[in-house]
Amino acid sequence: MSELRVEHRRLSLLGKIIRVVDDGETHATPGMLMVDPGDAAERASVTADARALRDQQQVNLDERYSGGWAARPTSDGRDAWAEYVARRSDPVERQRQARNDYLRWIYEHTRDNTLAVADHFLEAGLTFLGDPYAMEDLTRAGKWLADRGLIEGPGADQRPDPLRVGLTVKGEDLVESGRELHSEAPQAASTSYTFHAPAQVAHNSPNVVQMQTNDASKGAVEIAAMLDQLTAILVPDEARRTGEFAAQLREEASGTARSSRFREIGDAVMKAFGTGLGGALGSAVSTHTNAWLGTLV
Protein backbone atom coordinates (compact mmCIF):
# COMPACT_ATOMS: atom_id res chain seq x y z
CA MET A 1 0.00 0.00 0.00
CA SER A 2 1.36 3.42 -0.94
CA GLU A 3 2.44 5.89 1.72
CA LEU A 4 -0.20 8.36 0.56
CA ARG A 5 -2.96 5.77 0.91
CA VAL A 6 -1.79 4.95 4.43
CA GLU A 7 -1.81 8.64 5.28
CA HIS A 8 -5.34 9.04 3.91
CA ARG A 9 -6.49 6.08 6.02
CA ARG A 10 -4.97 7.60 9.15
CA LEU A 11 -6.50 10.98 8.47
CA SER A 12 -9.88 9.29 7.96
CA LEU A 13 -9.47 7.72 11.40
CA LEU A 14 -8.60 11.13 12.81
CA GLY A 15 -11.84 12.48 11.34
CA LYS A 16 -13.83 9.68 12.99
CA ILE A 17 -12.22 10.44 16.36
CA ILE A 18 -13.09 14.12 15.99
CA ARG A 19 -16.71 13.32 15.07
CA VAL A 20 -17.12 10.99 18.05
CA VAL A 21 -15.84 13.62 20.49
CA ASP A 22 -17.81 16.42 18.83
CA ASP A 23 -20.96 14.30 19.15
CA GLY A 24 -20.58 14.43 22.92
CA GLU A 25 -18.32 11.52 23.91
CA THR A 26 -15.38 12.30 26.18
CA HIS A 27 -13.12 10.14 24.00
CA ALA A 28 -13.17 7.61 21.18
CA THR A 29 -12.50 3.90 21.76
CA PRO A 30 -11.64 1.22 19.18
CA GLY A 31 -15.19 -0.16 19.20
CA MET A 32 -16.57 3.24 18.23
CA LEU A 33 -14.24 3.50 15.26
CA MET A 34 -14.24 -0.03 13.80
CA VAL A 35 -16.57 -1.49 11.19
CA ASP A 36 -16.48 -4.88 12.96
CA PRO A 37 -15.41 -4.62 16.62
CA GLY A 38 -14.80 -8.37 16.68
CA ASP A 39 -12.29 -8.36 13.82
CA ALA A 40 -8.82 -8.79 15.33
CA ALA A 41 -7.01 -7.70 12.14
CA GLU A 42 -9.07 -4.52 11.88
CA ARG A 43 -8.46 -3.77 15.55
CA ALA A 44 -4.70 -4.15 15.09
CA SER A 45 -4.78 -1.82 12.06
CA VAL A 46 -6.88 0.83 13.84
CA THR A 47 -4.62 0.66 16.88
CA ALA A 48 -1.48 1.07 14.76
CA ASP A 49 -3.01 4.09 13.03
CA ALA A 50 -4.06 5.62 16.35
CA ARG A 51 -0.50 5.27 17.64
CA ALA A 52 0.82 6.91 14.47
CA LEU A 53 -1.57 9.82 15.02
CA ARG A 54 -0.31 10.07 18.58
CA ASP A 55 3.29 10.15 17.37
CA GLN A 56 2.32 13.01 15.04
CA GLN A 57 0.76 14.80 18.05
CA GLN A 58 -2.65 14.76 16.41
CA VAL A 59 -4.37 12.76 19.16
CA ASN A 60 -3.85 12.13 22.86
CA LEU A 61 -3.90 8.37 23.37
CA ASP A 62 -4.52 6.71 26.72
CA GLU A 63 -3.54 3.03 26.42
CA ARG A 64 -4.67 0.52 29.05
CA TYR A 65 -3.04 -2.69 30.26
CA SER A 66 -6.06 -4.58 28.94
CA GLY A 67 -5.12 -3.60 25.39
CA GLY A 68 -7.87 -1.01 25.09
CA TRP A 69 -7.30 2.68 24.52
CA ALA A 70 -9.08 6.01 24.40
CA ALA A 71 -8.28 8.85 22.01
CA ARG A 72 -9.02 12.56 21.91
CA PRO A 73 -7.97 14.97 19.13
CA THR A 74 -5.38 17.64 19.85
CA SER A 75 -5.54 21.15 18.42
CA ASP A 76 -2.87 20.10 15.88
CA GLY A 77 -5.07 17.17 14.95
CA ARG A 78 -8.09 19.39 14.38
CA ASP A 79 -5.98 21.71 12.23
CA ALA A 80 -4.69 18.78 10.18
CA TRP A 81 -8.22 17.47 9.66
CA ALA A 82 -9.56 20.89 8.64
CA GLU A 83 -6.75 21.26 6.08
CA TYR A 84 -7.41 17.77 4.74
CA VAL A 85 -11.14 18.44 4.36
CA ALA A 86 -10.46 21.75 2.61
CA ARG A 87 -8.10 20.07 0.16
CA ARG A 88 -10.61 17.30 -0.58
CA SER A 89 -13.17 20.03 -1.33
CA ASP A 90 -11.03 21.64 -4.05
CA PRO A 91 -12.96 20.85 -7.27
CA VAL A 92 -10.08 21.75 -9.58
CA GLU A 93 -7.57 19.41 -7.97
CA ARG A 94 -10.21 16.69 -7.70
CA GLN A 95 -10.93 16.82 -11.44
CA ARG A 96 -7.25 16.86 -12.35
CA GLN A 97 -6.61 13.77 -10.27
CA ALA A 98 -9.76 12.04 -11.57
CA ARG A 99 -8.57 12.51 -15.16
CA ASN A 100 -5.17 10.96 -14.39
CA ASP A 101 -6.69 8.07 -12.45
CA TYR A 102 -9.31 7.38 -15.12
CA LEU A 103 -6.78 7.47 -17.96
CA ARG A 104 -4.51 4.96 -16.22
CA TRP A 105 -7.47 2.75 -15.24
CA ILE A 106 -8.55 2.58 -18.89
CA TYR A 107 -5.00 1.68 -19.90
CA GLU A 108 -4.89 -1.16 -17.37
CA HIS A 109 -8.31 -2.54 -18.41
CA THR A 110 -7.93 -2.42 -22.18
CA ARG A 111 -4.60 -4.17 -22.67
CA ASP A 112 -6.32 -6.94 -24.70
CA ASN A 113 -7.71 -4.39 -27.19
CA THR A 114 -11.24 -4.59 -25.77
CA LEU A 115 -13.24 -1.59 -24.58
CA ALA A 116 -13.77 -1.06 -20.86
CA VAL A 117 -17.16 -0.31 -19.33
CA ALA A 118 -16.82 3.26 -18.08
CA ASP A 119 -19.05 2.85 -15.03
CA HIS A 120 -16.82 0.05 -13.71
CA PHE A 121 -14.26 2.74 -12.88
CA LEU A 122 -16.41 3.69 -9.89
CA GLU A 123 -16.10 0.12 -8.56
CA ALA A 124 -12.28 0.16 -8.65
CA GLY A 125 -11.88 1.70 -5.18
CA LEU A 126 -9.98 4.72 -6.47
CA THR A 127 -10.32 7.94 -4.48
CA PHE A 128 -9.30 11.57 -4.31
CA LEU A 129 -7.51 11.97 -0.98
CA GLY A 130 -9.53 9.10 0.45
CA ASP A 131 -12.90 10.34 -0.89
CA PRO A 132 -14.38 7.91 -3.48
CA TYR A 133 -15.08 9.24 -6.94
CA ALA A 134 -18.73 9.82 -7.90
CA MET A 135 -20.57 9.58 -11.22
CA GLU A 136 -20.07 13.31 -11.81
CA ASP A 137 -16.30 12.87 -11.51
CA LEU A 138 -16.41 10.04 -14.06
CA THR A 139 -18.55 11.80 -16.65
CA ARG A 140 -16.60 15.06 -16.45
CA ALA A 141 -13.25 13.27 -16.66
CA GLY A 142 -14.44 11.12 -19.57
CA LYS A 143 -15.71 14.10 -21.55
CA TRP A 144 -12.50 16.08 -20.92
CA LEU A 145 -10.28 13.19 -22.04
CA ALA A 146 -12.45 12.47 -25.09
CA ASP A 147 -12.54 16.13 -26.14
CA ARG A 148 -8.74 16.14 -26.16
CA GLY A 149 -8.42 12.97 -28.19
CA LEU A 150 -6.98 10.81 -25.39
CA ILE A 151 -9.85 8.29 -25.19
CA GLU A 152 -12.61 7.15 -27.54
CA GLY A 153 -15.68 4.96 -27.57
CA PRO A 154 -19.43 4.84 -28.18
CA GLY A 155 -21.65 7.03 -26.05
CA ALA A 156 -25.32 7.84 -25.55
CA ASP A 157 -27.46 10.95 -25.83
CA GLN A 158 -27.91 11.24 -22.07
CA ARG A 159 -24.18 11.01 -21.29
CA PRO A 160 -21.37 13.44 -22.30
CA ASP A 161 -18.69 10.76 -21.95
CA PRO A 162 -18.10 7.42 -23.73
CA LEU A 163 -19.99 4.49 -22.13
CA ARG A 164 -17.50 1.92 -23.41
CA VAL A 165 -14.04 3.33 -23.64
CA GLY A 166 -10.53 2.72 -24.88
CA LEU A 167 -7.36 4.78 -25.31
CA THR A 168 -6.36 6.48 -28.52
CA VAL A 169 -2.76 6.20 -29.67
CA LYS A 170 -2.19 9.64 -28.15
CA GLY A 171 -3.62 8.54 -24.81
CA GLU A 172 -1.62 5.32 -24.76
CA ASP A 173 1.59 7.20 -25.54
CA LEU A 174 0.90 9.63 -22.70
CA VAL A 175 0.42 6.86 -20.13
CA GLU A 176 3.46 4.87 -21.29
CA SER A 177 5.66 7.97 -21.25
CA GLY A 178 5.14 8.23 -17.50
CA ARG A 179 3.83 11.79 -17.78
CA GLU A 180 0.79 13.00 -15.90
CA LEU A 181 -1.83 15.38 -17.19
CA HIS A 182 -1.47 19.02 -16.08
CA SER A 183 2.23 18.72 -15.26
CA GLU A 184 4.76 18.71 -18.08
CA ALA A 185 2.38 18.56 -21.03
CA PRO A 186 3.47 17.49 -24.54
CA GLN A 187 3.94 20.16 -27.22
CA ALA A 188 0.50 19.70 -28.76
CA ALA A 189 -1.36 20.00 -25.48
CA SER A 190 -3.35 23.06 -24.50
CA THR A 191 -3.38 22.50 -20.75
CA SER A 192 -1.16 23.75 -17.97
CA TYR A 193 -0.61 22.92 -14.34
CA THR A 194 -1.51 26.01 -12.35
CA PHE A 195 -0.67 26.58 -8.70
CA HIS A 196 -2.53 28.93 -6.40
CA ALA A 197 0.42 31.31 -6.63
CA PRO A 198 1.50 33.97 -9.15
CA ALA A 199 3.47 31.51 -11.29
CA GLN A 200 2.45 28.88 -13.80
CA VAL A 201 3.93 26.55 -16.38
CA ALA A 202 3.75 28.13 -19.83
CA HIS A 203 1.07 26.83 -22.16
CA ASN A 204 2.07 24.39 -24.92
CA SER A 205 5.66 23.92 -23.78
CA PRO A 206 7.29 21.46 -21.38
CA ASN A 207 10.48 23.53 -21.34
CA VAL A 208 9.35 27.15 -20.94
CA VAL A 209 8.24 28.56 -17.60
CA GLN A 210 6.62 31.94 -17.14
CA MET A 211 7.49 33.61 -13.84
CA GLN A 212 5.32 36.66 -13.33
CA THR A 213 8.07 38.51 -11.53
CA ASN A 214 11.81 38.91 -12.01
CA ASP A 215 12.34 39.83 -8.39
CA ALA A 216 14.25 37.08 -6.58
CA SER A 217 12.44 37.63 -3.28
CA LYS A 218 9.00 37.54 -4.84
CA GLY A 219 9.98 34.41 -6.75
CA ALA A 220 11.08 32.80 -3.48
CA VAL A 221 7.72 33.62 -1.87
CA GLU A 222 5.88 32.13 -4.87
CA ILE A 223 7.81 28.87 -4.54
CA ALA A 224 7.19 28.85 -0.78
CA ALA A 225 3.44 29.04 -1.49
CA MET A 226 3.72 26.05 -3.84
CA LEU A 227 5.60 24.10 -1.18
CA ASP A 228 2.83 24.90 1.32
CA GLN A 229 0.35 23.18 -1.00
CA LEU A 230 2.57 20.12 -1.25
CA THR A 231 2.65 19.60 2.52
CA ALA A 232 -1.03 18.63 2.42
CA ILE A 233 -0.37 15.48 0.34
CA LEU A 234 2.98 14.31 1.72
CA VAL A 235 3.64 11.92 4.59
CA PRO A 236 4.61 13.68 7.85
CA ASP A 237 8.41 13.56 7.57
CA GLU A 238 8.37 14.78 3.97
CA ALA A 239 5.74 17.42 4.77
CA ARG A 240 7.85 18.69 7.68
CA ARG A 241 10.95 19.00 5.49
CA THR A 242 8.93 20.72 2.75
CA GLY A 243 7.53 23.17 5.29
CA GLU A 244 11.08 23.94 6.41
CA PHE A 245 12.07 24.79 2.82
CA ALA A 246 9.10 27.17 2.58
CA ALA A 247 9.99 28.83 5.89
CA GLN A 248 13.64 29.25 4.87
CA LEU A 249 12.65 30.88 1.57
CA ARG A 250 10.31 33.33 3.30
CA GLU A 251 12.87 34.14 5.99
CA GLU A 252 15.56 34.96 3.44
CA ALA A 253 13.12 36.87 1.22
CA SER A 254 12.07 39.08 4.12
CA GLY A 255 15.68 39.58 5.24
CA THR A 256 18.87 40.10 3.31
CA ALA A 257 17.69 38.16 0.21
CA ARG A 258 21.17 36.82 -0.57
CA SER A 259 21.45 35.08 -3.92
CA SER A 260 23.91 32.59 -2.41
CA ARG A 261 21.39 31.59 0.25
CA PHE A 262 18.56 31.41 -2.28
CA ARG A 263 20.69 29.08 -4.41
CA GLU A 264 21.44 26.89 -1.40
CA ILE A 265 17.76 26.51 -0.56
CA GLY A 266 16.74 26.15 -4.21
CA ASP A 267 19.30 23.41 -4.78
CA ALA A 268 17.94 21.54 -1.76
CA VAL A 269 14.41 21.83 -3.14
CA MET A 270 15.57 20.55 -6.53
CA LYS A 271 17.32 17.61 -4.90
CA ALA A 272 14.19 16.73 -2.91
CA PHE A 273 11.64 17.00 -5.71
CA GLY A 274 13.73 16.12 -8.73
CA THR A 275 13.36 12.43 -7.84
CA GLY A 276 9.58 12.28 -8.33
CA LEU A 277 8.55 13.11 -4.76
CA GLY A 278 5.08 14.65 -4.70
CA GLY A 279 4.04 13.38 -8.15
CA ALA A 280 2.83 16.01 -10.60
CA LEU A 281 2.84 18.74 -7.95
CA GLY A 282 6.41 17.97 -6.98
CA SER A 283 7.46 17.93 -10.64
CA ALA A 284 5.92 21.36 -11.19
CA VAL A 285 7.67 22.73 -8.09
CA SER A 286 10.97 21.40 -9.42
CA THR A 287 10.34 23.04 -12.81
CA HIS A 288 9.47 26.41 -11.24
CA THR A 289 12.42 26.29 -8.86
CA ASN A 290 14.85 25.53 -11.67
CA ALA A 291 13.55 28.51 -13.65
CA TRP A 292 13.81 30.79 -10.60
CA LEU A 293 17.39 29.68 -9.93
CA GLY A 294 18.23 30.73 -13.47
CA THR A 295 17.15 34.31 -12.72
CA LEU A 296 19.44 34.74 -9.71
CA VAL A 297 22.47 36.96 -10.18
Short characterization:
The protein is mainly α and 297 residues long.
List the helices and strands and how they pair.
Elements: H1 3-22, H2 30-33, H3 40-55, E1 59-63, E2 69-73, H4 75-88, H5 91-109, E3 116-117, E4 127-128, E5 131-132, H6 135-147, E6 151-152, E7 164-167, H7 169-176, E8 199-201, E9 209-211, H8 216-230, H9 236-254, H10 259-273, H11 279-293
Antiparallel strand pairs: 1-2, 3-7, 4-5, 6-7, 8-9
What can you see in these coordinates?
With 297 residues, the chain is mainly alpha-helical. The chain has 3 domains: 3-86, Orthogonal Bundle (Arc Repressor Mutant, subunit A), CATH 1.10.10; 90-176, Orthogonal Bundle (Arc Repressor Mutant, subunit A), CATH 1.10.10; 199-293, no CATH class. Helices cover 53% and strands 9% of the residues. A 3-stranded antiparallel sheet has the order 3-7-6. Strands 1-2 form a two-stranded antiparallel ribbon. A two-stranded antiparallel ribbon has the order 4-5. Helix 1 (3-22) crosses helix 4 (75-88). It is flat and about 60 Å long. Residues 184-214 have low confidence and may be disordered.
Descriptive labels:
two-stranded antiparallel ribbon; 297 residues; Arc Repressor Mutant, subunit A; mainly alpha; 3 domains; 9% strand; three-stranded antiparallel sheet; 9 strands
Radius of gyration: 22 Å
Choose one word for the global shape. flat
Q: What is the succession of H and E elements? A: HHHEEHHEEEHEEHEEHHHH
Oligomer designation = single chain
Assign a percent range to the helix content.
Answer: 40-55%
> How would a crystallographer describe the biggest sheet?
3 strands, antiparallel
Care to count the β-strands? Answer: 9
